[in-house]
């Protein structure tokens, strides 16, 4: 069979035979168009953007430190400096196009890896929802528009999660080291393998991160703590919010201590009540990242990009995202909608300033509540106790199969269900 008939057969319009299949047929075109619109929007922006010029200057300073004019107070992390180093051999305009292409590829690869972590097939209705939702959310849109390193941070984080779930200890440790090198503010992620009694992984990851950081520090004399935007005045940590609201220092310290206590309690409850490996790793990763976003003084709204794997875990049974307060929190930190108003200027300004922080706090509180009140999640598939009477059923992976009651006139024997 030639290639052309096979291609035409693949895209031939079909009539859906079930509601999930109809949802899949409807969601795929929408998801693809959302991705194309975001790419068109990003490539239509004037180039190169200010954030990209910061990345380009860091790459130039790494390659030719003797020609660097001054030290940037908001220096990029060691991993970011090494990752962006090849840009220095190009002109800013050429480097911008290459960088945008690599960023889009990194985002799509991160999406594919997330599907592997979640065991989602391409025919599942959740697959186009994850693709469209990822490109529709504010942090990803901001990454594409500003051409920063958020796409590569998400790719490294998702790759580590996949390797950790599959127990590839050495490769997972190297990937985790790359994550810490890109985002030293997320060094608390080393706790996740420790909680699983994987002692080698955090030690090797710390060694990899150090090995990547030392050459950059020796060559440039700079050591940044983030690969994402850390512009002064854009922080959304609890310390920045306390300063914005003119709260006493004691109140800020009390809030920070409460967040630490809540994160620790959530992690303890997680490993006491959860046994399903992908869900445990995803939830622990999300809790640590939520606490890091709230407690890191330079954390901005762009840090919400790293919470995409946690949000995607809603497809797994027992996920802390399966409640409405969790999605109220996701809306707060995951959208780029503007609530400013000329008629309610003060309220709108306060809401825009506090929205990401309140979203992080609400999701952390929701996770703690769900873990404290939930039941222990057993290992293995959830047994199906319902009688299947439809001639065509839809399994959990999105595929169609015949009902066990069809094609047979005899009643099922004991233990058939």
Task: Draw up the topology in text.
Elements: H1 3-11, H2 19-43, H3 50-63, H4 78-83, H5 92-118, H6 126-136, H7 138-146, H8 150-165, H9 169-182, H10 191-195, H11 200-220, H12 238-244, H13 249-273, H14 277-295, H15 308-312, H16 324-334, H17 345-373, E1 392-394, E2 400-402
Antiparallel strand pairs: 1-2
Helix pairs in contact: 2-6, 2-7, 5-8, 8-9, 8-14, 9-11, 12-13, 13-14, 13-17, 14-17, 16-17
The fraction of residues assigned to DSSP E strands is: under 5%
Query: How would you classify the quaternary structure?
Result: single chain
**Any idea what the radius of gyration is?**
23 Å
Order of helices and strands: HHHHHHHHHHHHHHHHHEE
Q: What is the residue-mean pLDDT, rounded to a whole number? A: 81
Structural class: mainly alpha
The 3D shape can be described as globular
- Quick one: biggest sheet? 2 strands, antiparallel
Give the gist of this structure:
This protein is mainly α and 417 residues long.
Account of the protein in words:
Helix content is 61%, strand content 1%. With 417 residues, it is an all-alpha fold. The protein has two domains: 25-230, no CATH class; 231-379, no CATH class. It has a two-stranded antiparallel ribbon.
What are the key terms here?
GT87, transmembrane, 417 residues, globular, two-stranded antiparallel ribbon, 2 domains, single chain, disordered C terminus, mainly alpha, EC 2.4.-.-, cell membrane
């Amino acid at each position: 069979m030639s290639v052309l008939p096979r291609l035409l057969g693949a895209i031939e319009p079909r009539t859906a035979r079930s509601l999930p299949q109809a949802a899949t047929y409807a969601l795929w075109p929408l998801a693809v168009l959302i991705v194309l619109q975001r790419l068109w929007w990003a490539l239509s922006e004037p180039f190169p953007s200010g954030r990209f010029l910061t990345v380009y200057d860091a790459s130039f300073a790494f390659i030719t430190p003797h020609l660097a004019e001054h030290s940037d107070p908001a220096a990029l992390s060691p991993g970011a400096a090494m990752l962006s180093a090849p840009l220095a051999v190009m002109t800013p305009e050429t480097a911008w196009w290459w960088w945008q292409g690599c960023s889009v590829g990194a985002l799509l690869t991160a999406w594919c890896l997330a599907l592997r972590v979640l065991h989602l097939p391409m025919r599942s209705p959740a697959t186009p929802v994850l693709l469209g939702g990822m490109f529709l959310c504010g942090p990803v849109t901001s990454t594409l528009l500003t051409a920063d390193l958020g796409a590569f941070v998400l790719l490294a984080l998702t790759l580590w999660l996949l390797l950790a779930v599959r127990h590839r200890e050495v490769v997972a440790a190297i990937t985790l080291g790359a994550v810490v090198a890109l985002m030293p503010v997320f060094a608390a992620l080393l706790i996740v393998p420790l909680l699983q009694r994987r002692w080698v992984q955090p030690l090797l990851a710390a060694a990899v991160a150090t090995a990547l950081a030392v050459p950059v520090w020796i060559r440039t004399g700079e050591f940044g703590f983030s690969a994402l935007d850390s512009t002064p005045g854009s922080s959304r940590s609890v310390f920045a919010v306390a300063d914005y609201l003119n709260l006493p220092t004691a109140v800020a310290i009390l809030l920070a201590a409460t967040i630490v206590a809540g994160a620790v309690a959530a992690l303890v409850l997680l490993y006491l009540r959860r046994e399903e490996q992908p869900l445990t790793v995803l939830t622990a990763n999300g809790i640590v990242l939520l606490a890091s976003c709230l407690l890191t003084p330079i954390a901005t709204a762009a840090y919400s990009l790293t919470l995409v794997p946690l949000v995607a875990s809603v497809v797994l049974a027992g996920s802390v995202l399966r409640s409405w307060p969790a999605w109220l929190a996701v809306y707060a930190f995951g959208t780029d909608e503007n609530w400013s108003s000329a008629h309610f200027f003060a309220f709108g300004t306060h809401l825009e300033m506090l929205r990401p922080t309140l979203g992080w706090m609400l999701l952390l509180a929701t996770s703690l509540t769900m873990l404290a009140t939930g039941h222990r999640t057993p290992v293995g598939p959830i047994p199906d106790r319902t009688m299947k009477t439809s001639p065509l059923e839809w399994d959990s992976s999105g595929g169609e199969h015949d009902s066990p009651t069809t094609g047979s006139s005899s009643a099922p024997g004991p233990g058939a269900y």
